Structures are given as C-alpha cells and as structure tokens.
Input
Amino acid sequence: MGGSPKGNGGQENEIIGASGQRIEPPPASETKKLKLIPLIFLIYFEVSGGPFGEEPAVKAAGPLLAIVGFLVFPFIWSIPEALVTAELATAYPGNGGYVVWAGKAFGPFWGFLMGWWKWISGVINNAAYPVLCFDYLTVLLPACGHGRVRDVGILLFTLLLSFLNFTGLSIVGWTAVMLGTVSLLPFILMALISIRRIKPSRWQVGAQGHMDRSLYFNTLFWNLNFWDNASTLAGEVDDPQRTFPRALFFAGLLTVLGYVLPLLAVTGALELDRELWGDGYLAKAAGHIAGAWLKYWVEIGAVLSTVGLFEAQLSSASFQLLGMAEIGILPSVMATRSPTFNTPTWGIVASACGTLALSYVSFENIISAANFLYSCGMLLEFASFLWLRRKFPLLKRPYRVPVGIPGLVCGCAVPVAFLIYIMTLANPVVYILASSVTVLGVVVYFLMIACKRRNWIKFSDGGEGETGGTQSISAENRTDDQMPA
Output
C-alpha cells in the first residue's frame, strides 16, 4: 500500500467542542484496546472471511477471468478504498468513521445520510450470515435446513453472538483471529495437496463465448468491498495512526491470497465444469482433491467464517451508531456504553434487532438494494475524501496518500466508474427499495432536528451543525477546520 506515514506537523489531534473548548477524551486504557493482529482479522472478516462465495466468478466467466479478476480487481477497487480509509481514519481517529468524514466535508445532513445508507446496508448484509451458517450446517446436519430447528437456530445464533460482541471488542478481535486461522487452514492444505495434480493449461480457459457480466462483476464487488467498515472502530484502536495503515496492508494481503490460492488449486487440479461452480463447490472440490476429511473441514470452516463475518459487521455497525451519537447526529442515548465491558449497549441492541428481523425474510432484492445503498455511500465517501483534501490542506494526516489532488481524482475515477456501472445493473425493484430507504432517512434526519430544537430528545452538545456533535481536528488547523455550531 502506497503512502507516507508522516503527517504535516508534530501536534496531537484534540477533541474540540462548538465553542472551541477542549473536551477530554476517555482514558486510553478504556478505549484504545484493539491491537494490530486482532484488527487485521477484523478487517479481513469485514471484507472477506475466506474464499467462500468466489465460486460464481468461475461459473460466470471461466477460470482465467476469475483468476485475473481476483488479482487485478484489488488494484482498481480495494486498494483505492483502503487508501482512503487509511488517510481519513488516521486524520479523524474517532468512532463514526465515514460518517465523520462526510459530515466534515459537506455538513451534518450528508454525514447522517452516509451513516443511514451504510448502517442499513450493513444490517441487511449481517442478516444473511445466520442464514448462510445454517445453509452450510445443512450439509452436515440435514435437520438444520428447515422448520423449527432452523428458525430457533437462527435466533440463538444472533443472540449468542450479539452477547459475545457485548463482552468487548478485544474479545471479538481475538475470536476473529482464531476463526480466521481455523477457516483458512484447510485451503492451505488443499493448495499443497493439489500441487501434484495441477495442469497450468486449465487456468487458461476463458469465457468461451458465454460470460455473465452481471454475475461476474457483482461477485468480485461483493467479495472485495467493505474496507472502510473498520473505520468506525478507530476510536477503539491502540495508536490508530500507526496501526490502521499496517492492518489494512496485511488484511489486504491475507484477503487476496485467501481468494487466489484456492482458486488456483481447484481450477488447476480438477476438470472444469462451470455449471458446478456454485456456492459450496469449494467443499466438494476439497473432497475430490484430498478426501472426505478435508471436505468436512472446509464445511466447518465455512460455518466458522459466518461467525467471524457476523461479529465483525456487528462491531462496525454498533460503533458507528455510538460515533454518530458522540458527534450529535443521533440521540445521546446511543452513545451509552456498558459500564462493565465499555461496549456500545444500545448500538449493539439496535443492530442486532435489525439483523434478527431481516433474517427471516427473502433476500434477493433486499440484498441487491443493500449493495445499491452501499454504493451510494461509497460515492459520497470518495467525494468526501477529495473535498477534504481541498478544503483542509493543512489538516494533520499521519498517513497521507502521496499524490496531489489531480492524482487523487485519477485514482478515484476508476472505482467511481465501477460503482456507477454496478448500480446500473440493478432492477427496478432495487431502485424503488433504495429510493424509499433514502427518503425515509431524510425524513428521520429532519424529525431529529425538530426533536433537538424542542428539547424532546437529548443530543450531544459538542457542536456539529444543526444537531450538535464533536470533531477531531488538528491544533495547527483548528480555526479553519471547525464546523459551524
């Protein structure tokens, strides 16, 4: 990952209220818990969680384009997104992440809308993981596939893992390390065992006149996005200015290897039948390459991966709500932390309830709408990144992408074009769902402003536009960078 770890000055960031007063941050021992290795695996689970789900790329376009896609796509999409996250998460190292960035760039309305889009899409995506877990378990335990067993199991999955999230981000982080290690090991073994059977000519098979572009690009997009989600945890990271860029780099390396090695192993070792390359095919392929023992290990790894994915997404969603409350664009009750575990009590409750409610509904159009909303948020995020460079050129950036604004515009142009292309693939139902959610978000924002003005609901008084809030700004740039109260 390219970039400079040095900032524009030696002064520390401070938390400044609306009237210019310095607000003391919580003690470091309470909030700066997350170390490098747990953060690497939390980012890994935010983005990937393993090669589960890459199979449709082969079905859509053949081995050659699938391999090229997972090697090239990180450079045109994942790296730009990760670099934006590295610069802005270290410049504004508090909870809230992209919500803070959009608010600082364009005002509290856009900060709220960013948070609304990202939180809704995150909760919808998280609701898929309990369902996926029981889909994988059905292979081992057929009773998990239907009826009361499945419904109760999804409920318990959500409640138990939400409680684990409640016990602390450090525990969640080290749990992610364990889950990631166990779920990746069978693919490392499969890659080693397959070496003697690999025929490189099998990697050269292309689309052969039949390519499902929508499936291909959506598969790449789904498997290689969400790099910015961990930014909502920046306030809980130990020395985020140093830790975040390093964690993003190593998580990126782990993600790409986790996709490419199994893809090379299976496509090189087995005869190609593109129709077989659907969800779950990697487990069957492991059985063909090494035997039933590895097939079941991959199935177990898939179940553990859904646990890690759920925990990582719930962490980022709940700390996002806490961050939004801390800067005053959600009611202050959402900033409540557990006195025992220091985790966002109501952020976890709200996110878990949304996840649970959506776990029992049909997903096809809803998940497509979630991806559309996420894409809207990413367009706003790239715009915020560019505007903050122009608006606050002297802001202390401990990690700075080492190019000027023209270079940044060129670097963002490709992922922005890809986002727009992905959004054009949506069907009319998705457009209606996404538009309805956006309109609802706008209504909620102005209702909260009305409640704030009438003192019906308590908000933080740190000062960010209409609804209050706080901001992290450089002491050397304090006057220019402060938003109006």
